[in-house]
Amino acid sequence: MDKSARWNERYAAKELVWSAGPNELLARELQGLAPGPGGGRALDAACGEGRNGLWLAEQGWQVTAMDFSSVAIEKGQQIAERRGLILDWQVADVTRDPLPEHHFDLVVVLFLHTDPAERSRWLPRLIRTVAPGGTFFYLGHDPENIEHGVGGPQDPDLLPAVDEIAQALPGFELLRAEIVERPVAADPGHRRERDRERDREDSGTALDTFVRAVAPA
To answer: What does the DSSP 8-state code read for residue 100?
Structure first.
């Protein structure tokens, strides 16, 4: 079974795999980033059920939401219809399918974890989709999370550290590049089953790699 089929099964198994609202750090960091009077173009890469892209659309962004899971995209479309939002939903694998270069005013990549060889291909490709002066926003489980946090993959090869992401952005202005803490009690999709069994009310704090950068004009 390939990866997209496995994720289709996971998304089909419950109403929502991730929370209904956007990632809290993304909403807090980007609340004041105006898309412009005509609406800026935003890419939600590996969007899942679209919780972050939906929030961006509510802020006035013209959102392209991509994921290789057709089930996740269908669920996102249904949520958008109920909320009266218009997004460009695409069943596509951002790690390998063609992407426009220098096109998006905002590119958000949250919790996209692959092996280093695959990451060495998709990370620069996604960075090249950022338009001049645009913003690149990356958030994912940090390697330190394996020993000192909760949830997420347990293979360190799947978890890029802050320096790896920052070094992939030559010429960008780094606004933030650091490890951040994330309480996961209200973030059910990122908890391991044993975390839920151990403490269903408070499964602790995750450690995430966070990089926000602006492309040269």
So the answer is: -
Burial 118-133 (b: 16+ CB within 10 A, else e): ebeebbebbbebbbee
List phi, psi (to 5°) of 117: -65, -45
Fold exhibited by the domain 121-217:
Rossmann fold (3.40.50)
Q: Where are the alpha helices (DSSP H) in the chain?
A: 3-12, 24-30, 51-58, 70-83, 116-128, 145-148, 162-167, 193-198
Backbone angles phi, psi at 157, to 5 degrees: -65, -25
pTM, two decimal places: 0.89
Do the beta carbons of residue 72 and residue 7 sit within 8 Å?
A: yes
Q: What confidence tens digit (pLDDT) does each residue in 15-60 have?
A: 665 466 899 999 999 998 989 777 799 999 999 999 999 999 999 9
pLDDT of 188: 54
